[in-house]
Amino acid sequence: xxxxxxxxxxxxxxxxxxxxxxxxxxxxxxxxxxxxxxxxxxxxxxxxxxxxxxxxxxxxxxxxxxxxxxxxxxxxxxxxxxxxxxxxxxxxxxxxxxxxxxxxxxxxxxxxxxxxxxxxxxxxxxxxxxxxxxxxxxxxxxxxxxxxxxxxxxx
Length: 155
Description:
The protein is α+β, with helices and mostly antiparallel strands. It has two domains: 2-80, Arginyl tRNA synthetase N-terminal domain (Gyrase A, domain 2), CATH 3.30.1360; 98-148, no CATH class. It has helices at residues 2-15, 40-44, 47-56, 79-92, 122-140, and strands at 25-26, 36-38, 62-68, 72-77, 106-110, 144-148. The strands form two sheets. Strands 1-2-4-3 form a four-stranded antiparallel β-sheet. A hairpin with a 3-residue loop joins strand 3 (62-68) and strand 4. The longest helix is centred in the C-terminal third of the chain and has 19 residues, at 122-140. The protein is elongated, with a radius of gyration of 23 Å.
């Protein structure tokens, strides 16, 4: 959705013959300010013109938009958007979020490596959790993963 909003804003700037400026689309800290917010109105000084143009053809999945402060534009996503997103997640199951950006790459990850002569503690568990998480994320991106945890100083 973020990319869709960014693309629509860039198209709007071109349609209004405004210079395409660097702007940010992000989740606001306070959800009262919408699901996404952008500073494009501040950067261009044309927040009202931009939101008027956007409201004429609202982005799919956006319920409403509001001007806030000195030129922020806040986007509120529709319940239909969230419903459709959940349906897609359920439909794809364990395949949701996977991609093939690292397909064909072989990656070896070493992690944890506790000292067998000292007490195993929560820090080792943290290292194991982080190492396994990183391995699984990389694997979900298509890479072939091998992991190892050497016990002690074997090198």
